[in-house]
Automatic annotation (TrEMBL):
PANTHER family per the UniProt record, alphabetical: BLL3656 PROTEIN, HYDROXYPYRUVATE ISOMERASE
Protein name: AP endonuclease
Domain Xylose isomerase-like TIM barrel: 28-257
Entries under Pfam families matching the protein: AP_endonuc_2
GO molecular function annotation: endonuclease activity
Domain of life, source organism: Bacteria
UniProt keyword annotations, A-Z: Endonuclease, Hydrolase, Nuclease
Length: 289
């Protein structure tokens, strides 16, 4: 008789899925809909249409966020987003790192948008150094439309900076695009050391990749699909991820939010992910130690 316990997947709700919901209510919503963690966007980037949830300057919202965590028992898995550009001052991020530690977060997401990769590499290394005293791992996410746009580039950065608290965040949507546009291969995921894999941005999207950058941007911010829908071969991608990785569901979809509301959409995101893992027999490949 096989007495081995089946691994239970852990899920976090990524803030981009419901970005207009402020952190306190976002945490309560994540708890009500069954998530294990919340991933909150507390680093303000000044992008058009994005609300400012900088908890280091909004003390009232910070206290309400702490209250929501205490009420629900939910944990903050990560904060985001460090957008590395020429005008980014790494030292200015320290207040956000302090707040992340206060909230119990373990990770901060960063992506490199400058085309000056030497500058981007040095800035990323400095960010890792600044985040380390606060117990934060800096997750480098490669984004198809950014300066570091594929797995190969992300691996090159981490192998160069050699920071103990540096890691790689794979997003199934971005990776699908990098495979078809920039020469990555699914089996290249075996090159990621296990210590660099803490969590995974999970979603689905149409397999057709638009050529227009504006349309690519719109889809990744407004039209990602539920995990159990057709498009990306998540089954193959996830075969290279460790069993105990946390899945952060980043599934923004403007029309579905308008139809269902943020909370029901968040619930459907989680249901779709659980359906995927129930119905898909993901055969695990070897992950490096």
């Amino acid at each position: 008789m096989n007495t081995a316990k089946k691994h239970k997947e852990k899920f976090s709700l990524a803030h981009l899925t419901a970005l207009q919901v402020p952190p306190p209510e976002f945490i309560r919503m994540a708890s009500r809909t069954g998530y294990d963690y919340a991933s909150i966007r507390t680093i303000y980037m000044g992008l058009p249409g994005e609300p400012n949830y900088d908890l280091s300057t909004n003390k009232e919202m910070l206290e309400d966020t702490k209250k929501a965590l205490k009420e629900t028992g939910l944990k903050v898995w990560d904060i985001e987003l460090v957008r590395v550009e020429e005008e980014t001052d790494p030292v200015s991020l320290v207040p956000s790192f302090k707040i992340a530690q206060e909230l119990g977060a373990k990770h901060v997401i960063a992506s490199i948008w400058t085309d000056d990769l030497e500058f981007g590499k040095n800035s990323f290394a400095q960010i890792c150094d600044l985040a380390k005293p606060y117990g934060l791992t800096v997750q480098l996410e490669f984004v198809t439309i950014a300066g570091v746009y594929n797995l190969k580039g992300a691996l090159a950065i981490l192998n160069s900076v050699k920071r103990q608290n540096a890691a790689i965040l794979v997003d199934s949507h971005h990776f699908h695009r990098s495979v078809h546009l920039f020469g990555d291969k699914v089996e290249d995921l075996k090159r990621i050391p296990r210590k660099w894999l803490n969590f995974f941005h999970l979603c689905n999207a149409t397999s057709l990749i638009p050529e227009d950058v504006e349309e690519m941007t719109r889809i990744l911010r407004e039209e990602r699909l539920y995990v159990d829908e057709e498009g990306i071969d998540n089954k193959e991608i996830l075969s290279y991820m460790p069993d105990d990785i946390v899945y952060s569901l980043e599934i923004p979809h403007k029309q579905r939010v308008e139809a269902y509301g943020y909370e029901e959409h968040a619930r459907k995101c989680l249901e779709s992910a659980k359906n995927f893992f129930t119905s898909s027999k993901v055969k695990k490949e070897v992950v490096l130690s």
